[in-house]
Amino acid sequence: MITNLVIGSEGFIGTSLCRFLEKKHEKVVHFDIRKNVKEDGRFYTFDFTHIDYIYFLAWDVGGSKYLYESKIQMTQLKWNLQLMTNVFEQIEKKKKKFLFVSSQLSEECDTVYGVTKRLGEVWTHLLNGVCVRVWNAYGVMEENDVKSHVISDFIYQALVQKRITMMTSGEEWRQFTHIDDLCKAFYMALHSKNLRRTVYDASSYEWVRIRDIAEIICDATGATYKVGSVKGHDPLPSLNMGRVPGWLPSVGLQDGIYKMIRQEKKLLRI
Fold first, then answer.
1. How far apart are CA 202 and CA 102, in angstroms?
2. The domain that contains 117 carries what CATH number?
3. What's the pTM?
């Protein structure tokens, strides 16, 4: 039986990835500081003896309101550099096959998140690993706090407050990728025999405004929305690294959002 180590197993994407791998009847070793404070990837000594594949998802990350907050840039920098150094040095010694989960924001240089993710991509290349860049993951409702992401935030506001209050004017453009599609992309990238490069993108390849997201959610819930006065960040016109061979997204944005709304209504008993 194939044994996978998922570093960051209890996170936003990690929980879904673990379920995906287990449904394939593969063994999953869960590792996350949220599960056990001793499982701190910055300092932990791993035992890779019986591990076939490693999925490296752990990172200090959140939605845009967290990533762009100036007061916590240094905290993010220290955490992620320690984490990356400890994990990659041990992978190098054991020569294990691994996947590093990055972000399209790795092309940006104005946040610690983007810079450290880009460094992770370079280090992955040096270790002969494979990297998949995530473009705005969604598909699971999160706890409503500073680290939650925009679609989850909007759905929570729409159902609980009946009104979405946007931080920005909503004119910024994004590409969103459902977590189910991401799990498939990670798995196919790590198992593919047709890779031609180190870094790949996992995206819907369809641009949508943040304001359009609010309108989809309001149409489905009967809520209203109010735009903010601040202009949001548009992604850099970065080079698309290409999709994982054989992979295409299958979950449409509207269908994915409707599914999240149904799930949250059940939880809120609406």
1. 10
2. 3.40.50.720
3. 0.91
